[in-house]
């Protein structure tokens, strides 16, 4: 009995090594985040079409309260930051630091959703790697800042909704909508998650066909002319990426299919759990299939495409191929992706 009990207790040396690895991992993540945050903070007003808008709003808010169309949650955050008297660069860096904290929260919720038993810190590193490589995350960091923040909150809201965790769904949903009202569209379709997998796929399939055929645009124009005018009137005078975009639709469906096509390359039971989670991604595509034909139609894909980073991160973390999930490969990937992110921001690479 005593020998077995002693054998079950980790050796002091093993604990020390584990603690050292954890500290090293935390320092690497911190270093990557600080580098990314610095480049976002000092970006010029010409990097991202909305950078000057947020900078101007911050400066106005620092001097006095202003009337704005921005959502109350974002106004509250900006007001709190402006009260410190910080510079515009510090404001931009603070917003990105907040987005990183939100990303870490979303990764944690997804980690629990998949019921992982591994190291969360490594999964966080892989998730950040995938986010830093995503032009959509860059877009949500330096351009569509409010929507970028909100997108990483609506993802855990829908994860909680699917699991009938109403308190978590409500909390993350309210926070997401308080930062960007468009998140209400994703929450509107959340009840689809309560249906069976076949019905979910059928609804998504019909929505996809209605979109690529132009039927959804026609139905909204005839049945809801005011909604049609509002969607087409976004960013008055612009016609950027307006109309049906079958390329966007096909690219979106591609990412839904990836966990199924590569299912044999994933360790179980995590592969099945990742595939179950694609229902959340599918629901996040529904707003695009309904109104993704207006000006700047890619804005409806920001949330689902950002969520892809967490899904791909989980696939790498649970890959059957040892090389793909080797700690050295994953942690090196974080460092390389940080440099890619720096390039994206400095070059203004957006999608």
From TrEMBL:
Coiled-coil stretches: none
PROSITE patterns: PROKAR_LIPOPROTEIN
Source organism per UniProt: Dyella thiooxydans
Keywords of the record: Membrane, Transmembrane, Transmembrane helix
Transmembrane segments: 89-108, 120-138, 173-196, 202-220, 249-267, 279-296, 302-319, 328-345
Keyword Plastid: no
Taxonomic superkingdom: Bacteria
Protein name: EpsG family protein
Alphabetical list of InterPro entries matching this protein: EpsG-like
